[in-house]
Amino acid sequence: MGLAKLLVKLFGVALAVLIMRYVVSYLRSSLKGLPGPFLAKFSDVWRFWNHYTWKHIETQKKLHEQYGDVVQLGPKTVSLSDPNLLKTIYTTRGTFIKICALGSPFIAQELDPLMNDTDASKGKTCDIADWISFLITLDFLGDMTFSKRFGFMEQAQDINGQINTAERVMHYFSVVGQIPMLDKWLGKNLWCPIKFADFAIPAGFCIQRFMKRVQNLEQFKDKKDFMNGFLEAKKEFPDLVSDNTVIGYMIINILGGVDTTAIVMKAIFYWILKNPSIKAKLVDELRTARLPFPANYTSAEQLPYLDACIKDGLRFHPVVGHILERVVPSTGLRLSYGTTLPPGTIVGINPWVLSRNKNVYGEDAEDFIPERWFRKENEDKEAYEVRFKMMKDADMAFGNGNRACLGRLLALVELHKVTATIFSKYKIELEDPE
Ligand code: HEM
């Protein structure tokens, strides 16, 4: 009984000390005057939970609607949505540093026989979302990174649950990234690691491919894949790039490209299929263009309606649902209404918030409308150019500045080629349009 009382007392004291710590750091904080949720003033725990329950996108959109361009998301973290700040925060000079938490022929040539084997070819319903994941995620990136597919297309299934695992790994990054020091106690805990999933299978595949390549350099010397590029870098900068670095680059490549392109492509397909008039215009443009099979990028990127569908898809369904964090440098960050955020504050813009900004994208920013990228009937040329530039400048789909996405061009090639190929060759529709 005595021990239980002692433990309760100790717990009470620890709790009191913790609360005091939060209160003192709140009172000292120069951010306390900023608008935002009450709990965000004291700790990052509410944001951690908000991400864990997948509510962060809606929450952050609502907070900006309620409070405007500046919202405090944590004791040291501020979300901004003023498009004018984009070029200041995400510079190519990298003054606002990112805190880091944690050429092969396209396989569409072989898409046809594989598609012919799907349920769809036998008149049954086939889930195109699964096929996008098989094709776009690990198979395509395996091919591009080390000229070897993982084999999802052939087996028409998520081999060893790797795609599902990759999604859970991303969720771990998103949640634990809100309080990065937790990673030491969770995922990187030496005794009993706690993570939603790990990336061991694709990472093992990268290591295997690396071993095979270095043991057979002559056989693979003409491959125009990322691995040969990384090995070149190793030759040129031996002090910077080791064998482990090369393997690390390949794992980052797979991780960075695995879910991202598939998410955007599924969203683009869904919104095109959901809007019959958009689908009809796209199919009409593709059929008139008489593209080869598979569609080549040079022809596909010239098609204005296809391009507008992809642009608006990237805007409407960004891959990243949280602020792209950067640290305010020693100069501080002066906001338009006079407040200056002190050095060390973590700031960022959430692509989901900026892509819904009505001042930039118009009153219909909440809808998927490829036509917004074209000149309107009564719009004069100059006004259109200003509007177009404003939309382009606010584009955060691939990030911005010196740490923008390294796979952007590759992803755009995939998006154009696959969308053009599928919509020009196959009749696809939603099983349940509602
Ligand atoms: C539609 C597809 C994609 C989207 C929307 C996308 C988006 C992004 C975003 C928003 C960032 C973070 C930028 C920042 O923090 O400011 C990023 C970083 C990155 N992406 Fe992508 N990505 C896509 C595809 C790919 C592909 C296919 C690859 C690899 C081949 C890739 C490799 C990377 C890498 C390596 C980084 C880290 C860059 C750095 O920190 O310096 N991405 N991407």
UniProtKB/TrEMBL annotation:
Source species, domain of life: Eukaryota
Gene Ontology molecular-function annotations: heme binding; iron ion binding; monooxygenase activity; oxidoreductase activity, acting on paired donors, with incorporation or reduction of molecular oxygen
Cofactor requirements of the protein: heme
Keywords annotated in UniProt: Heme, Iron, Membrane, Metal-binding, Monooxygenase, Oxidoreductase, Transmembrane, Transmembrane helix
Chain ranges passing through the membrane: 6-24
Residues involved in heme binding: C405
Pfam entry (one): p450
Family label: Belongs to the cytochrome P450 family.
PANTHER family referenced in this protein's UniProt entry, alphabetically: CYTOCHROME P450, P450, PUTATIVE (EUROFUNG)-RELATED
Name the record gives this protein: Cytochrome P450
Protein species of origin: Clohesyomyces aquaticus
